[in-house]
Structure formats: C-alpha cells, structure tokens
Amino acid sequence: MLGFVAFAAIAALGLASINFYKVKRLDPGTKAMIEVSEAIKDGADTFIRHEYKVIAIVVAVVTVLLSSIVSWHAGAAFVLGAVMSGTAGWIGMKIATIANVRVANKARQTGNLGETLKVAYVGGSVMGLSVGGFALLGLVIVYFLFGGILGELDQANLAIKANWIGITFIPFSMTVSSYALGCSIIAMFNRVGGGIYTKAADMGADLVGKTEAHIPEDDPRNPATIADNVGDNVGDVAGLGSDLLESYVGALVSSVILALYMFYTNIHSAVGTISFDFISKLMIYPLAFAGIGILACMLGVAFIALTKPKSDPHKELNQSTQIAALLTIAGSGIFTWFFLKNQDFSSMGFNVGVLSPWIAAVIGNIAGILIGRLAELYTSYDYKPTLKVSQASEEGTALNITQGMAVGMKSVFFPMLVMAVAMIGANAVAGLYGVAMAAVGMLSYVVATVSVDTFGPIADNAGGISEMTHLDPGVRGITDKLDAVGNTTAAMGKGFAIGSAALASLSLFSSFLYAQADAADTSGFLLSLNLIDTLTMTGALVGAALPFLFSGILIESVSKAARKMVQEVRRQFRDMPGILSGDEKPDYTTCIKISSKSALREMVLPALLSVVTPLIGGFVFGPNFVAGMLIGTTLSAVALALYTANAGGSWDNAKKHIEDGYYGGKGSDAHSASVVGDTVGDPLKDTVGPSLDILIKIMSVVSILAVPVFQEYQLIEWIKSLF
Amino acid sequence: MNQIYYYMTLFPTESFIASMLQPDQFGAYMAVGHKTGGHEQMIFASVEGGFGDDFDWEYAKQNTVPHDDDTPKNSLYLSTYRVLERIPLERIKNLYLTTSDGRTLELTKAPFPHYDDPKPYYLYQDLAPINPLVISSFQPDEYGQYMVAGDTKITLPAICYCDLKVIDADNPTKTGNIGPMYNRNIGHLNECIKSVTVRGKKTKMLERTFAGRFTFQIVGAGFAIVNPEGHIWFDMPKREDLLHEHYDWGYSAMIL
C-alpha cells in the first residue's frame, strides 16, 4: 500500500514538473513586461533566500534539541518535514513569479478569458500538486525509512520505550510528530514572514499612494507597487502553500498518532482487542486516502488543462474541484470497502462497520464545504452581511468598522456549530479516529483547493503587470475577472484550513491525553480531563489569552513595517517630485528592502511563541496545565481565526461592492470609509487569521513531543519535593 | 528662441500663466510637481498669446527663460484676477483636465450640444469665475447665454461651467461612480428639482460651496466657456473612449 501512496506522490510531482515547464516555455511578452516581472521575481527570490537562512538556524537548533532529547529519528524526520514544506513553498513562489507575466501575455495575445484562465490555473496547479506531492512523499519516506527499515512500525515497537535519558514515548509517534513539526515550523515562518511582508507593502502602497497621492492601484509611479506584487507571491503563494501543506500533514499525522496511542492503550490496559493487522492498516489508511485524493485531483487539473477554453471561470474552477471531490469520495469508498473488510471494527469504536472511517471522512468533507459556503455567505457582497457593511459606509468610517466587526463576530458561530456537529457525527460513526479522519476528509482534495487558491494571486499579479506596463485595458479586464474568482475561492480555502485545524487539533489533543495518562486510566478509550483542576483551568485561561497575544504581536509587526513603508513612500514623493510627473523612476528597491527586513525581523517572535509557550507551561506546571492550555488556545484561536478571516474578507468585498458603483462608488465618502475598513482588515485576514490555525497545531504537536519530557522534569513537582 | 506657452487656469482658481512646459507637463507640474507635496486637480486652457494690452507680453517673453541649470521655466504668473473675461474666445485653443495625481487629458472644441428632446432639468457646476452647483431647466447652450446676458440680477461677464451627470434620486443605492455627488442631502436636492420642474424656476442654486469636492467622475456631456460675444464647447469623452484611448487618465480620474 505504501507503494501506491509513493506512486501517487511521485505522479503528482511529475505532473507538477510537466505543468511547470509547460508554463515556463510560454512567451513572457514584451520587454517592459519582462522587466517588471524580473523585478518581482528578484524581490521574491531575495526575500525567500533570506527567510530560509533565518529558518535554517531555527531548524538547526530544534533538530539538535529533538535529536538529543528525543531521538535522532525525530531530528531527521523534523528536517525532512522542514525540507518538504520549504521546497513546496519555494516551488510555488517560483511558478507564481514565472506564471504571472505569462498570464498577462496570454491575455494580451489572445484577448480570451478561457485561454488565460488555463495558464493561470496550470501555474496554480504546480503549487497544488507540489503541496500534495511533497507532503505525501515525506510521509512515505518516514514510513519506509523509520517505520520499515528502522523497525518503528514493528509490533514490538508500538509501545512506550525509554530513550538514553530515561524519557519514555512511542517511537513512531515521536518521529511522525517531528515530521509534522518540521512542516509546521516552515508554515509558521512562511505565513508570518510572508504575511508581514505582503501587508506592509500593500498598506504602504495604499495609504500613501491611493489615499494621499491619489494614484490608482498598481500604478508604476508608486514606489511600493513592486514590493506589493512581491508580497502577493511570498505571502499569498509561498505562505498559503506551506500553510495548507502543514494542515494536510497535520490532519494525516493526527490520525496516525491517535491510532498508535489507541492501539497501545488497548493492548496495555489488558483489553487487547485491536489486532496488529488492523492497526497497521489504520496507520496507512489515511495516507492511502490522501493518495486517492491526489490522483482524483490530477484528473480535476487535467479537466481544465485539456478541455476547450470556456468563458465562465468560476464554473470551470468549481467543476474541476467538484470532479476531484467526487472522485476522491467514490474512490476512497471503494478502497475502504476492500482494504478494511474482515476486521473487528468494534475494537476501534467503529459503529457502522467497514465504511465507518470513510463515512467520518465524508462528514468532514461535507463540513468543510459547509464552512466554506458560510465563509462565502459572510464575505461575499452577493449576500446581506457584506452588503450591510457597504451600506454602513454611508455613515462613515466608524460605522463601516463596527459593522465589519459585527459581521466577523457573528460569522464565528455557525462554522463552529458545523465543526461541533461534524465532530459529534464523526465520533459517533468511528470514535476518535473518525474525528481525525474527518480532518483528512476535509483536506483530501487539497491539491485542487490549493491550485485554485494559488491561481488567484497569479491572476492578481498578472493584473499588476498589465497595469504597470500599460497593456490594453482589455487585458486588465480579463485578469480582473480571474482575480475576482480567486478572491471568492480564497475565502473558502481559509474556511477549510481553519476547520481542518480544529478537527486535527481535537485528535492531536486526544493523543496528548493518551500520552500523558497511564494506560490503565484510559481503558476503553475513556479519556478524561478534570476541568475543575486548578492547573487545567489556569492553563485554559492562559491558553485562551495566547492567540490574542500572538495576534497582537502580528498586527503590531505589520503596523511597524507599514509605517516604515509609508514614511519611505512619502519621502520619495517629497524628495523626487519627478516621480508623479513621470520624469523620474521611483526607487522600488528600497521599498522591497524595507518589507524584507521588517518581515525577517518581526517573524521570529510570534513563530517562537508558538513553540516555546507549551514547553515553558509544561516544564513549570506540568501536563495538566498544558492540557488546559491546548483546550483554551484551540477554542479561542479557532474563533479568532474565523473572526479575523471573515471580518477582513467582508471589509474587502464591501469596498469592492462600492467600487462597482454603489452608494456613490469611487471617490464618495462611503468609498473612503470602506477603504479604511479594508486597510484595517488586511492584516487580520491575510496575516493573523491564517497564522492562527498553524499556531494551534504547532502547540499540539510540540506538546505531544514534549509531554514525556515534562512528565519527568517539572519545576512545580521539584519545588514540592523540597518541602 | 524659447517656446512660450500661455495657459489660463480656470479651476480651482483663475490665473494667466506663461510657461515653457507643454500642456501635459504643465498639468503634472501644477498638480504634483511642487516639493510642498500638493495633489490638486485642475482645469486649464491653452491660449494663443499676444492679443490686446491687458497682459504684459514683453514681461512674459523676457522672463519665460530656462533656469541657470537649463531646466525650463515652469510658470510665470501674468495675472491672477478676472482672467476669463479678458481672454477673447477665439484665442482659446484646447481645454485640459488634470487629475490630482498629475495626469492630463486634452479636450478639443466641438459643436455646442442642443437636445431636441430635452431633459426636465440639468445639473451644472460653475467653474469660473464663481463655483456654485446649480439646477436649471436650461439646456447647456441656453444656460451659458442666460448667465452672461446681463438682463437679470445674477449675471457674469463670462463663465466656464460643465454639465454633470444627473442623479437618479429614486435609486440611491445603485448610483454608479458619482463620488462626491452621492448623499448630498437628497431631500434638498429633490426640493431644488421641484423648484425647476414643478414651480417653473429657470435656475436654482443647489450648493454654494461644492467646488472643493468636484471631481471629473461626475462630468456629463462636457465643458462650456461663454461670454456675451460667443461660446465654445468641449466634449467630455465617453467612458468607452476613455477605456480605449485615455485609459491612464480615466483610471486616475476614478472613472474606470
């Protein structure tokens, strides 16, 4: 079965290579277009190179810690995860900076929406296929090398072992968690760094360019405009790719670790009803499920790449995703039937027979779609909530902001209700393993969703290039239509990432509870957490506050960087008056450097916070405190992520609605108010929201990795022992 | 011999300026070319100089010369008061609209519009020498002639004005990009419309101080300059023409 998963991963990477070169060999257009695209490419390359140098230091430190405190297996798996995630992000950014100019040129040469869509989507598919391919390839290596060759998946090793310093853990659980942590660390840096970069540039470009100098979006006279376009690539492409790769791996790994702990608990609590054959299958099952998803998505990608160009991009992208989703569900259903038959399903809490985990995955899938639809409901101007934000702009900035906040806050309830129902449903069908599979189901066609999500920034960049190089307005018309489709799909993609993070966190949390409890205490999978316990409750309090601290640091970082950008753009307009009259070229490089330096400096603290907090909490107060902290963080982070993503999306689209000629349109007081609202929402939806779902998974994985350590070494116990 | 251009600025202030800059450069200079960081939209006309003795043409020739570093003389003010009434219409060449980010659109003379099927009311922005926002039952050509005829208490020696897009007061949501015209006290607007359409007033002032919020987005058919001797008209390009021929200007003016 591992061979099949490897085949799916390699096939995805093969198709990604084909699509990469298919886009690369297209004509990049005129000399001016090439010049602008080269400037964007150089800026993005330089940032990613510097970012990866910083990350390499962090990766080296964590590798040494994991290798010495846990095992060298964990250290190596962590590096592997970091390499896979980093490579996917880098390739995604690379193809985006290659595809953007070719998309603009295709629109210029053909004037055809359908043909332009194909280039943008094929470019986006490179990122989608890389995310799926690299995530699975890394897991295949972990299974093959550590599970197979080094024997971690042998029956004898599916038990708690002590390492050289007496710390006890299940070896494969540590190795696979470390792989996930590697992916998460890269995702956190890419998301946070890219998010700060892109919003500093975007806000700097808008605040001075649009508001003070009254120059339009993507005007080449704006010194921050190239940095803004670079930001789309490092934030919305590399950041998003690493983020969804991490979510994907997080969902897969959470189900594997949970299966491991359930097996161990079952055996060591003297129940012993789960067979080794069954658990071996359940540990490979999520990967095979994902493999089927990847192959289905490849057909979805082929549907757009090979069929005749059409004129409705939204419909075509939806069809591609629907094909992928339906094939994944059908294929995985048949696979489940044959792969899991003749097992003792009750031993794992599977209540509806062989298809139990598949039904749980389908529940997750449906929940993902519902959460995505709810995100659309709250953020699209086709529906009342965002229309109300547009309308409130008539009465000024303050009411635009308060209405946007109201929409964001209200938008939290129903998605969380959907998650709750999905958890209850998945748990009823297939126990805790079912909840983990629901997260897997939600992300099973991640290749299709990332392809569509990446297509958006590519189209956005293509629009910027056509504006900066004064291409025919018809070209901008085509790229604008593609960009608008990308905006809607992006909001839905964020819903999937947040929803899957919540489900994966519950299964990771369950694994944490298994890891910290005695096997006898969890007999029959009865996990319990005493919320009345002071340490658990205080942990929950601190945990609930943590996402706010984390978000505050991020917003402050964006503000600091944006202020520097504003000052630089103002300086250039003041000292070089020829910029606006068209007699002088702006100094784009300085703005790129400001964004880069700020992002690199500011990304470290929030990223480290997510790793260090559960460690400190655990070492000082012990596992109960960390358990409370995980609960508190997960609940408040999921709510905050939904709030920030949907409020930001709503402010953005409320502004777009006014720009479409409502409430006075461009230049009206309502428009000015909506521009402010959109600017307030920018760091929320593009920096804070996406980083929060990584925060909760990093904290869960770090806690699982560290719980054996702080069970042994704990300050509060040591102090007690002194008296 | 240095090329000297003469420009009459009409909005936001009236003045007569000699310059070595071509119209688009002059527009950019006036809108954004100062180190003061100004961003100001403006309307000006190119003028064929050398007429009459109201302006000091010799002073202009002697002082409109390059600076010591060979850069051209940007502006030499020849007059800043009651300029429009002193320029013969036949000396006015083209009209230029400069956006607040310094992009300039050239308008050439066109026949004055007169509609066989007139609208019940028109909206006019007076640009020079005074700036009220006016509702009138007069068509564009009639309005200018009425304002300079001298047979009413409200009369001017010359006027520059433009007609504005008429707001659909019955559909205050889907307005199009009318920017500052939106939400300007719809109740008062309806009253003023009634004054003209129901109570038969020829003109009714809607707002005395709207000029500070005037933008090119709301210009309707075009611009007029009228004095007792005659009138000239400049067509405002249609949205489609801006899209295909003057995209940058249309984008800066927030029309596109």
Termini distance of chain B? 41 Å
Strand order of the largest sheet of chain A: 1-2
Helix content of chain B: 10-25%
Helical content class of chain A: over 70%
Query: How would you spell out the order of helices and strands of chain A?
Result: HHHHEEHHHHHHHHHHHHHHHH
Strand runs of chain A, count: 2
Order of helices and strands of chain B: EEHEHEEEEEEHEHEEEHH
CA-based gyration radius of chain A: 25 Å
Tell me the count of domains of chain A: 1
Structural account:
Chain A has helices at 2-24, 31-69, 72-110, 113-149, 171-212, 225-268, 276-306, 313-340, 356-379, 384-392, 397-442, 446-468, 473-516, 534-575, 578-581, 588-602, 604-621, 623-659, 669-712, 715-722, and strands at 161-162, 168-169. Chain A has 723 residues and is an all-alpha fold. Chain A has one domain (2-722). Chain B is α+β, with helices and mostly antiparallel strands and 256 residues long. Chain B has two domains: 5-107, no CATH class; 122-252, no CATH class. The chains are: A mainly alpha (723), B alpha+beta (256). Chain A binds chain B through residues 212-216, 219, 221, 394, 470, 473, 570, 573-574, 577-578, 580-582, 659, 661-671, and chain B through 25, 28-29, 31-35, 37, 39, 99-102, 173-183, 215, 217, 243-244, 247-248, 251-252, 254, 256.
